[in-house]
């Protein structure tokens, strides 16, 4: 039996890059948000052995380097299953776009494989396998609004944002995430203050360090910003503390037009990507001028999104971008419940 599932995209609501760790990864803080844009994954298990990947997009590898191939290898071993796994990827999301397409494809493939085999991995095992493949795979096992820490692989469900319209612009630029990290490290070693926004403030030549604060201070800073965002003033100083999730959820639902920028939550990658690709900075400006109450690069890019109060405003902004030759789609954020709604 062939199983068909949707493989949703994600955006990053802010992304803070911390110190380089001993394992070669950077410490990260981010809030992931799944959105309705998606690829389609079809999986079937037939007689024989091996893994076959089919995809019409020439940018998608069909060999063992594909994340879907790698996750199936591990899942089949963990499930002690046999057979030839055939994976069909109907690609709608851009490759190297910062929307997590390859990671989402892998997780969707693992979940479809479970259904095809009528076997299920234990929850912790699924998260372990996902984290072995890549940093942003585990978020797709949760969906909705998700806090990512560690190097992005340690994930925690947050109270869901209310669903809201968004525009996702996908310029025809491929950005390598490893290269973006290398550019960030080079920027740090050159002594450019991390708090200087790309193209807006000139750093002082006398600065010898990246910033007066340590990397751990930067992580603490974004933690405070996220706490301020998740706990509106009407929630009276964390009255319910850890039991206050429902109160936080009500506060956020009552105020869907969240002013993320005022909290200081932004994407550090913009500081190294925008100077190299100024046209991406202009895309963000078009979204902001079109009424987006928050706009940002997603991951390391090149996708840029804007959140809007109404779908009409989003449609108008998307049309404006298309007039300039930039592909743009109107979509919406997804709650966790809608991510797991099975309608295929």
Brief synopsis:
The chain has 344 residues and is of the alpha+beta class. Helix content is 34%, strand content 23%. It has helices at residues 67-79, 101-117, 123-133, 177-189, 215-230, 245-254, 270-276, 278-289, 311-323, 336-339, and strands at residues 3-20, 26-46, 51-55, 84-90, 145-149, 154-157, 165-169, 294-297, 304-307, 328-332.
Q: Uncertain spans, ≥5 residues at pLDDT below 50?
A: 194-212, 232-257
Count of DSSP H/I helices: 10
Indicate the CATH class of the largest domain: Alpha Beta
Number of strands: 10
Largest sheet: 6 strands, mixed
Radius of gyration: 20 Å
Terminal-residue CA separation: 13 Å
* Strand fraction: 15-25%
- Structural class, by secondary structure, is alpha+beta
Order of helices and strands: EEEHEHHEEEHHHHHEEHEH
- CATH A-level architecture of the largest domain: 2-Layer Sandwich
Report the mean per-residue pLDDT as an integer.
Answer: 82
**Globular, elongated, flat, extended or rod-shaped: what is the shape?**
globular
Helicity level = 25-40%
- Provide the number of structural domains: 2
Task: Give a structural overview.
This protein is 34% helix and 23% strand. It is α+β, with helices and mostly antiparallel strands and 344 residues long. The chain has 2 domains: 3-159, Ribosomal Protein S5, domain 2; 165-338, Alpha-Beta Plaits, CATH 3.30.70. The strands form 2 sheets. Strands 1, 2, 3, 4, 5 and 6 form a 6-stranded mixed β-sheet that branches. Strands 8-9-7-10 form a 4-stranded antiparallel β-sheet, with helices on one face. Helix 8 (278-289) runs antiparallel to helix 9 (311-323). The protein is globular, with a radius of gyration of 20 Å. Residues 194-212 and 232-257 have low confidence and may be disordered.
